[in-house]
TrEMBL record:
This is FAD/NAD(P)-binding domain-containing protein. The lineage of its organism: Eukaryota, Fungi, Dikarya, Ascomycota, Pezizomycotina. Gene3D superfamilies: FAD/NAD(P)-binding domain. Transmembrane segments: none annotated. InterPro entries: Agnestin_monoxygenase, FAD/NAD-bd_sf.
Length: 390
């Protein structure tokens, strides 16, 4: 794997070991692109496993199975891993039901462990800090590792699966304690963060799946162990639900699903909230983009804490350049590739995952961006063969 200059060379470098990174490795192996260098700082299922194990999934179990069986390398890992294992556990569940994110995270960890050097995958704990495209048709990639000097390797392909983190925005009221979305989605941690013996009012901003989960978590605390807890919910629009429409799902990527959707319908809709037990603890503030700053000034002044569930932003990616000039680039959500400022494809650079999702159009012409394990698999099975032609 070393070239004439002594630099280690790979067919592909995959950055990130969350569900999309795992899927990218599997699909590269499907195209016989190895050796692969796989770089991540912990190599343990990404943010899915680190932060969201306590979150109920809005995905049917059979969709996780389709991810687990999507490529030969994954199927081999499932066969080789001693039982009981995470894949077998999912197989034993009701395939039409949902499960907890922890069960999908355990699958990701199992696959990560099984994708090893025997399959042409070399794992490196560290962070890719920069990469330069050379006229020789390779990326020169610098990797920083804890307790080691930086190393440089070359690769034909650089695949970014670097993930996203919750977004927050400025608010016109000071002295609010911010509760991060990651923490608010973890009921045991959230319970410890909120004092039980003080009057606490927590504002929740947003109406996404995550926002409704946070509202439910807070309601459960307020109605049990934290009786002095009150909730103010700020939302710009009515609740939106995913809808089964034959062989496709309307609002598949943006609508409420599963148990969370049922809870929202029973407790948060305009005709249900006044008579719901939730109304004892929750005040709904309907706002708009034009009026929300004014509404925040009026209603946040009585709050002690805030949770912003308003979306995610892409995590930092390596510094990328060609001939010493930093790339100005645009992601193509249909091919998984990038274009430079002149509209030309950047060779050997691709991405996938929550920060780089596939653009999809439903039968009614609505545009969404596909996020989820099975959706990553479907996307990468389609595009990786074209990535590996060069």
């Amino acid at each position: 794997m070393a070239n004439s200059e002594g630099t280690t060379k790979y067919e592909a470098v995959v950055v990130g070991a969350g569900p999309a990174g795992i899927c990218a490795v599997g699909n590269l192996l499907e195209q016989n692109k190895e050796p692969i260098l796989w770089v991540d700082d912990v190599m343990s299922g990404g943010r899915l496993n680190k932060y969201y194990r306590e979150v109920p999934s809005n995905t049917r179990v059979k969709r996780f199975i389709s991810y687990a069986e999507g490529v030969k390398a994954f199927r081999d890992v499932a066969k080789e891993t001693p039982k009981p294992n995470a894949y077998q556990h999912l197989k034993d569940l009701d395939q039409e039901a949902t499960c907890h994110i922890a069960e999908a995270a355990d699958l990701c960890i199992m696959l990560t462990k099984g994708l090893d050097e025997s399959k042409g995958v070399h794992k490196h704990l560290g962070k890719v800090s920069e990469a330069s495209w050379s006229d020789s048709g390779n990326w020169s990639i610098k990797i920083n590792s804890p307790g080691q000097d930086p190393s440089t390797i070359t690769s034909k392909l650089l695949i970014l699966c670097t993930g996203s983190s919750p977004t927050t925005g400025p608010l016109p009221v000071s002295r609010l304690q911010e509760i991060g979305l990651d923490s608010a989605l973890n009921p045991p941690l959230l319970s410890k963060m909120i004092p039980k013996d003080q009057s606490i009012t927590i504002a929740v901003i947003g109406a996404s799946h995550s926002a409704i989960l946070v509202l439910r978590n807070l309601y459960y605390l307020a109605s049990s162990t934290h009786p002095s807890l009150a909730i103010k919910w700020f939302t710009r629009h009515p609740l939106r639900y995913a809808e089964e429409r034959g062989d496709w799902i309307y609002r598949d990527n943006t609508g409420l699903k599963g148990d969370v959707a049922v809870w929202a319908q029973e407790n948060l809709e305009e005709d249900r909230l006044p008579s719901s037990d939730v109304s004892k603890y929750l005040q709904k503030i309907s706002t708009t983009k034009a009026t929300e700053q004014e509404d925040y000034r009026e209603y946040l002044k009585d709050c002690t804490h805030v949770v912003q569930a308003i979306g995610f932003h892409a995590n930092e990616i390596p510094v990328l350049d060609r001939g010493g000039k930093k790339f100005e680039m645009k992601y193509n959500n249909e091919t998984g590739g990038f274009e430079d400022s002149d509209g030309k494809d950047i060779k050997g650079l691709y991405a996938a995952g929550i920060a780089f999702p596939e653009r999809v159009v439903d039968p009614e012409g609505n545009v969404e961006y596909a996020v989820g394990l099975a959706k990553f698999m479907k996307f990468l099975k389609r595009v990786v063969p074209s990535w590996t032609l060069t």
